[in-house]
Each structure stands twice: as C-alpha cells, then as structure tokens.
C-alpha cells in the first residue's frame, strides 16, 4: 500500500473566477462562495486541471497516456492492477475508482478586497465582433491565497527498487507545480496562480520538495532503463 499526503497553497496573482452556476439581480455570473462568504476553488475543478497536466507530462516522458474518464468505451474496463497508464492508476477510470481525494481550496482569512463586478460583452468567434443583447457582468475575486490538500491510497503501483517515491507520485507533484491558471475565464487571462507545495508525506515519511527535485532525474533515468528491459 502506498499513501501520500500533499499540503499546499494556491496563490492567485490577479483576478479569478470560480462560478456558482447562478446569477443575481445585477450580476449574471456569481462567484462560488463558502459558508463564510469567501470564494473558493472546488475540489473537482482542481482534480480535473491536475489530471490534464499529468496527461501532458506522461506524453513528454514517453509513458502511456490515460483513458478518457468520461468515455464508455472498453478502454477503461481493465481491473485496477492491469491499468498501464500512470494517470489512470492515479486518478482512476470510469469503471475503476482510485482512492485519490481532494479538498476544496479555501481561504483561512478574510479577503482584503471585496469581490469586483466587471461588465463584459459576448464575442462571436465566427464574426469576431460583439453579439447584440449579450452584455453581462461577471463577479471576480482579487488576489488571494487558498489552502488545500490531497490524499491518496494506492495498491499495485510499479515501483523500482531504487525509487524513494513512486514515479506516479512524481508525476502528480510535477503536475501540481505546472498549474498556472485555475477557475473560469482562463482564456481571457484570468486565474493566474502559483501552486506552492508546503508538505509531502509518503508512507508516514516527511519529504521536502527540494529533496525530491534533486532525485527526479535519477528516477526518470531508471524508468527509461526499465521501459527498455520490459519492451514498453
């Protein structure tokens, strides 16, 4: 059994929006807020963005990519111990659940600045011009630091004898470090952020990110040798 816990914060460097799916009397797109009226990032949003980043990393490393978690094809029908993709083993498939749990990213303090409303107009991508009668307002949060954590319990991960941490968890941590935007309106430059890993605990052993960074290249070289031996 492999157990990992990652404590981190997400520092937004500018305006960001996490939509509630509801509108108000004056604002069409309201911020999602917790019971203390503070905006937050839902765990499902963080999980989806992180899975996408991990998918990109597996392609760069020459490993097998994951299956579409929403697809009903037979690709994800394999039992968990037969899944070949590190992403599928970390996050699971439509037919095979993984014990990787995310917490909502929330503030533990009162925001210094209230939410701001910005008027916008919908743009037609085909005509590249403003659409008539499509003026709306979006509610944005200002700079903030949110805290969250990830916990995972996994069996049957392929681990080389020399590894101090499974490659799957290396991909998970690198995926976190590569996140640059979160929330809605990312295409308009909103949601710029930096993920700061505060603590990593693997099988009750506390690890530092600096120590992991120093060993990443060695682990990747060992895995290249392993793939050649196994014909992967």
Describe this structure in words.
The longest helix is centred in the last third of the chain and has 22 residues, at 209-230. The strands form 2 sheets. The chain has a 5-stranded antiparallel beta sheet with strand order 2-5-1-6-7. The chain has one domain (2-14, 42-112, 145-230). 25% of the residues lie in helices and 26% in strands. The chain has helices spanning 43-60, 86-91, 167-177, 209-230; strands at residues 2-12, 99-102, 116-124, 129-140, 144-154, 193-202, 205-207. It is globular, with a radius of gyration of 20 Å. α1 crosses α3. The two termini are 24 Å apart. The protein has 232 residues and is of the alpha+beta class. It has 4 helices and 7 strands, in the order βααββββαββα.
- Average per-residue pLDDT, rounded, comes to 79
Measured as a percent range, the helix fraction is 10-25%
User: If you compute it from the alpha carbons, what radius of gyration comes out, rounded to the nearest whole angstrom?
Assistant: 20 Å
Strand order of the largest sheet: 2-5-1-6-7
Q: Number of DSSP helices? A: 4
Q: Ends: how far apart?
A: 24 Å
The secondary-structure element order is EHHEEEEHEEH
| Structural shape | globular
The main sheet comes to: 5 strands, antiparallel
């Amino acid at each position: 059994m492999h157990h990992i816990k990652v404590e981190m914060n997400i520092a937004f460097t500018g305006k960001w929006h996490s939509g509630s799916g509801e509108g108000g009397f004056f604002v069409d797109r309201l911020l999602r807020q917790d019971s203390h009226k503070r905006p937050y990032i839902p765990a499902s949003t963080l999980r989806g963005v992180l899975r996408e980043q991990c998918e990109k990393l597996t392609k760069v490393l020459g490993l097998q990519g994951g299956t579409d978690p929403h697809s009903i094809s037979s690709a994800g029908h394999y039992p968990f111990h037969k899944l070949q993709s590190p992403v599928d083993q970390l996050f699971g498939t439509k037919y095979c659940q993984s014990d990787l749990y995310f917490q909502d990213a929330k503030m533990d303090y009162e925001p210094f600045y209230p939410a701001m409303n910005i008027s916008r107009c919908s743009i037609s991508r085909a005509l590249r011009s403003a659409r008539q009668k499509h003026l709306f307002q979006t509610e944005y949060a200002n700079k903030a630091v949110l805290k969250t954590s990830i916990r995972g319990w996994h069996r049957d991960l392929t681990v080389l004898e020399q590894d101090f941490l499974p490659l799957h968890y290396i991909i998970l941590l690198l995926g976190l470090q590569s996140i640059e935007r979160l929330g809605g309106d990312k295409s308009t430059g909103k949601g710029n952020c930096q993920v700061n890993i505060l603590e990593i605990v693997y099988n009750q052993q506390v690890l530092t990110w600096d120590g992991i960074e120093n060993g990443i290249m060695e682990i990747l070289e060992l895995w290249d040798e392993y793939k050649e031996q196994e014909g992967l």
